[in-house]
Specification:
By secondary structure, the protein is mostly helical. It has three domains: 164 residues, MgtE N-terminal domain-like (MgtE N-terminal fold); 120 residues, CBS-domain (Roll), CATH 3.10.580; 172 residues, SLC41 divalent cation transporters, integral membrane domain (Tetracycline Repressor, domain 2), CATH 1.10.357. The protein is built from 22 helices and five strands. The strands form two sheets. The protein has a three-stranded mixed β-sheet with strand order 1-2-3. It has a two-stranded antiparallel sheet with strand order 4-5. Strand 4 and strand 5 form a beta hairpin. Helix 15 packs across helix 16, helix 19 runs antiparallel to helix 20 and helix 19 packs antiparallel against helix 22. The protein starts with a helix and ends with a helix.
Length: 484
């Protein structure tokens, strides 16, 4: 059932995007035709007004007004810069803040660059304090000063607190919009209190019970409020054994807790036991998605999230670091091959077989790296089990080396009818697969030990090492057993 719903949602978003692109295309076409007409400037301007703004742009405006901010954010990310800015100008001002929160960091930068100080201030004021904290790194300091002045004393303190936490901490994920109650009241009092709200905060599945000093006591699930008698005391129903988070906890740990215990919301408690905020499942899902995208980019050696329609210069700069490293490793691999020129000249078949040895080890190593990065993200690798995991990966690579190295060796024998070459091929693949397993495990583990993202450049480094290592092993064995 959920799968069908997911497909339906995806179809809807794609449909919205296609409709917006169609209207933008019609707008551009008519504008081009009008510009080609030979007529006085005033008449041409009047024709543009009648043909464009009263038709396609009006339809586009109507379409945008119907869409959720998240859908508009998706559309903005999929449009070239000129069309993106046209759509952005047509979005109602009272939704700017919600959309800026939804778009990617790279696209947000392009939108903010077009907004005035006043527009940015108004957009930020539409948001809750935790959302302003998310937006703060992209806003000019002058705008942030204006925003601070517009907030109440309590909101200022919340914003300052939220901005002090690292972006990968629970404090950066928490929000302050929650419902708190005391344990010395009845459910009837709680019900009357809740009816005073126009609406409850999103993802309110439980109420947080605190004492007079704001210290966290426990939670009262909403369903218990509904099924018990009104005169029942909250103290009788409060659940004390609940999952609590600390602002300085890693966001990954919070995500794991939400997944493991199927949480909708969780309280955030400081070192004094005071309730300071909550984390909700929608924020955790956003964090997981962001981390997954970041990990994917890091594995490819990209330094940051990239706007697919950014300038060629900016996109190229984002890709330079690891390309430069890759070029250096490629030169090193070429020198490895160069040192065995004599061997290759005497046995030309080696040149055709080298890529096989390097390629399969790179793929096998990437499989190991993916498993290790995933396990690190889930917190499953510790000092006590790392050695066991290494032994297992080496055993897998050894088995694959024997099986697929044997297949490659048989292939080499069929082609060149040389049993020694066949054995060299099998041995080289076995050794290089073992090398790939070691590198595939130790690169992400070393990155994590250095406090870096384990995925950063892992595939680039792995490919470089397995290529150079594979060439050296294969040509070295060939020199020993085929030439001498």
């Amino acid at each position: 059932m959920s799968e069908n719903h997911e497909h339906h949602y995806t179809d809807d978003v794609q449909s919205h995007l296609q409709q917006v692109q169609s209207l933008l295309g019609k707008h551009a076409l008519v504008e081009t035709l009008v510009r080609k007409q030979e007529m006085p400037r005033a008449e041409r301007h009047e024709l543009v007004e009648s043909l464009l703004h009263k038709r396609h742009l009006v339809e586009l405006q109507t379409k945008l007004d119907e869409l959720h901010p998240a859908d508009i954010a998706y559309i903005l990310e999929a449009l070239p810069i000129e069309q993106r800015l046209l759509v952005w100008d047509m979005v109602k001002a009272d939704r700017d803040g919600d959309i800026l929160i939804e778009v990617s960091d790279a696209v947000r930068e392009s939108l903010i660059a077009t907004m005035s100080r006043e527009e940015l201030r108004e957009a930020a004021e539409q948001l809750d304090t935790d959302e302003i904290a998310d937006l703060a790194p992209d806003l000019p300091q002058a705008v942030m000063r204006d925003v601070f002045k517009s907030l109440s004393v309590e909101e200022r303190e919340q914003l300052r607190a939220a901005m002090t936490y690292p972006e990968d901490s629970v404090g950066a994920l928490m929000d302050f919009d929650m419902v708190t109650i005391r344990e010395d009241v009845t459910l009837e009092v709680v019900s009357r209190y809740l009816r005073r709200f126009d609406e409850l905060p999103d993802h309110t599945d439980q109420l947080f019970v605190i004492d007079r000093n704001d210290r966290f006591i426990g939670v009262l699930a909403l369903h218990r409020l509904l099924v018990n008698e009104p005169e029942t005391d909250v103290a009788r129903l409060v659940h004390h054994e609940t999952i609590t988070l600390h602002p300085d906890d890693k966001a990954e740990q919070a995500a794991q807790a939400f997944e493991r215990y199927d949480l909708v919301s969780a309280p955030v408690v400081d070192e004094d036991g005071k309730l300071v905020g909550r984390v909700t499942v929608n924020t955790v899902v956003d964090f997981i998605r962001s981390e997954s995208e970041s990990e994917l980019l890091s594995q490819a050696g990209l330094r940051e999230e990239e706007d697919i329609f950014a300038s060629v210069w900016k996109s190229a700069q984002n890709r330079w670091l690891w390309l430069a490293l890759n070029l250096c490793t490629a030169f090193f691999a070429s020198r490895v091959i160069g040192s065995f020129e004599g061997t290759i000249e005497k046995f030309v078949a080696l040149a055709t077989l080298m890529p096989i040895v390097a390629g399969i080890a790179g793929n096998s190593g990437n499989q190991t790296t993916t498993i290790i990065i995933r396990s690190l993200a889930l917190g499953q690798i510790t000092h006590s089990n790392a050695r066991h995991l290494l032994v297992k990966e080496l055993a897998i690579s050894a088995l694959n080396g024997v099986v697929w190295g044997g297949v490659a060796g048989l292939f080499a024998y069929v082609l060149y009818h040389n049993i020694t070459l066949s054995l060299v091929m099998t041995s080289a693949m076995l050794l290089n697969l073992l090398l790939g397993a070691v590198v595939g495990m130790f690169v992400p583990l070393t990155m994590q030990k250095l406090g870096r993202d384990p995925a950063i450049g892992s595939s680039v480094l792995l490919t470089a090492i397995t290529d150079s290592g594979g060439f050296f092993i294969f040509l070295g064995l060939a020199t020993i057993f085929l030439i001498h």
